[in-house]
Structure formats: C-alpha cells, structure tokens
Specification:
- With about 290 residues, the chain is of the alpha+beta class.
- The chain folds into 2 domains: about 10-165, Beta-Lactamase (2-Layer Sandwich); about 225-275, Beta-Lactamase, CATH 3.30.450.20.
- The protein is built from 9 helices and 6 strands.
- The chain has helices spanning about 1-5, 10-55, 60-65, 70-85, 165-200, 205-225, 240-245, 260, 270-275; strands at about 90-95, 125-130, 135-145, 150-160, 230, 235-240.
- A hairpin with a 5-residue loop joins strand 5 (about 230) and strand 6.
- The longest helix is centred in the first third of the chain and has 48 residues, at about 10-55.
- The chain is rod-shaped.
- About 15% of the residues are buried.
Length: about 290
C-alpha cells in the first residue's frame, strides 16, 4: 500500500482502471457461470426425461422386463439407446426394484437403492438430483413402464452427471477466453490513454506537486498588498485575497457569492459586457457589515 501511494499518477490511474476492468470481468464470469449451471441442469433434465420416456415406451422393454432372461434381452438394446442419447446411465428396474440393465455389468441383478424411487413405482413421472460416488451431482428421471394392459411392470431410470463448476469455468474460458482477453487489452489501453490525458491536464505534475503549488500560490496571493478580485461569467466571485477583503470591509468565505452582494457599487460586471479592460477606475464602498 505504501508503494502504491508513491507511484506516479499515470500508473495509479492505469492500475485502478485495470483493476476495475478485471473486477467487472470476474463479476461477469460469476454471473455467466451461474446462468450456465442453471441452463445445463435444465437441459440435462429434459434430455434424461425424454430418454426415459423413450425406453419405457419400447414394446420389447414392456414385454421382457419381467422375463427370466430379461437382462440378456434388454441390456444390448438399452446400451445402444444410452450411447445414441448421450446418457451417462440407463437403468431398467422390475417391480422388485432389481436392476435389469446397467452400464456397469456387475450391478445387474442387484437391488436399486436410490432413496427417491418410491413415487416411480406408483406410476409417477419426475426428475430429481442425487449425489454421485465421487461427490458430484447427477440429475435423473424416473418413468414407469406401463404394458399394453395398463399395468405397471417396472421403472426406467436415466441419469446424467451435472458438470462441476470447474468444468463450466473451463468451458467459459474455451468459448469466451478470447473475448475476455480483448476486453482486458482494450481496458489497459483505455486506462493508459486516460492516465496520459490526466497527466497532461495537470501539466505533468504529480498530486503532491499540485498541492504544494496551490499552497504556495495561495500564500503568495494573500501576501500581495493590493486587493485582487476575480469574477466569472455569472458575476460570481472566484478569487479574492485578504487585502481585497479589507478594502471592501468584509471577511469570511465570499467565493461563489454575487459580486454585487459584496461590492454594491462595483463596475466589474461592466468588463464582462463591454469585453475590454477598465483601467485606473476608482470606487467608494459604503459597506459596514461582514460576510461570514
């Protein structure tokens, strides 16, 4: 922090501007990350639901789910559907909740224990989220298998693993990395131009130098024995030294006040109207009150 205070004004402005650009990009990336996460979850939920309904409507699945060789008949079919629909897993369950199909062959014939499958065995269609073995999250859809006699004979479970925040971040970097780099380059360039402009406006002086010059100017100005008053186009006082205050018998801060309020008989506004100097003019002030 101490080093930053002693940096030239050009570098201070540049670093602060670049910091603002970086902060904006980071906030934008966080917002985009949250949006992509929600969109990805919604997209995968729809995909799993459609795939589950597709499998549940297969006549072969409806007829073979409770047969003795159900796994041999359905595993190849379901695996082809899983690959074509880009699903992470498709599990067909009979009414005893036994896995008839599964991408991992060792799990075929074991009982499904997901904890959220009960409604599916009561002919409910829904989508839920669950934790994976490695700590991630998966979105999965449950669709009951209804045969031609309108009887439920099983359940289809289709799941897709949700991308991690790291994975989404890498996706953003790959797809929009060039945009961020260009924005940063233009931000640095604009910051440098702004810093140079400010430097020129301050006559290439640092803030400490400007402050010192102002103090010296004020002290010199007030040390002048002659009264000096300046006004702007609106006839308001912009500059007045101590000698001038004593001449017009006023005190306090009168900068910003109308000149007529301080010197009623002043001829300074005439200079604004005629646009030429009035030299060696005398005036008499009858003011006796102070402005504080």
């Amino acid at each position: 922090m101490v080093r930053f205070k002693h940096l030239p004004i050009r570098w201070k402005v540049t670093l602060l501007s670049v910091g603002i650009v970086l902060f904006s990009l980071i906030i934008g990336a966080i917002v985009l990350l949250g949006y992509m996460k929600d969109q990805k979850e919604e997209e995968l939920s729809q995909m799993t639901l459609i795939t589950a309904q597709l499998v549940a409507q297969y006549q072969t699945v409806q007829e073979q789910v409770n047969s003795e060789n159900a796994s041999e008949m359905l595993q190849p079919l379901v695996e082809r559907i899983r690959i074509l629909n880009n699903a992470d897993y498709i599990v067909v369950l009979n009414m005893d909740r036994v896995r008839i199909t599964h991408p991992i062959s060792e799990r075929i014939g074991t009982v499904f224990q997901g904890g959220d499958e009960d409604p599916a065995f009561s002919e409910h269609i829904y989508t839920s989220k669950a934790m994976t073995e490695d700590g991630g999250q998966t979105v999965r859809s449950f669709v009951p298998i209804i045969n031609e006699n309108s009887e439920q004979v099983g359940v289809v479970v289709v799941g897709n693993v949700l991308p991690t925040l790291r994975g989404l971040l890498l996706e953003i970097v790959q797809s929009m990395g060039s945009v961020f780099v260009i924005a940063l380059i233009f931000g640095v360039w604009g910051a440098w131009l702004l810093a140079n402009h400010i430097k020129k406006q301050t006559f290439h002086m640092e803030p400490e130098e400007l402050a010192r010059v102002l103090v010296e100017r004020t002290a010199t100005f007030n040390a002048i024995n002659d009264g000096v008053i300046a006004i702007d186009q609106n006839e308001r006082i912009t500059v007045i030294n101590q000698a001038a205050k004593e001449l017009v018998n006023t005190s306090g801060d009168v900068v910003g006040m109308k000149i007529q309020e301080v010197i009623p008989d002043t001829r300074l506004p005439e200079v604004l109207k005629i646009d030429r100097p009035l030299l060696q003019r005398e005036f008499f002030s009858s003011r006796t009150c102070d402005f504080k």
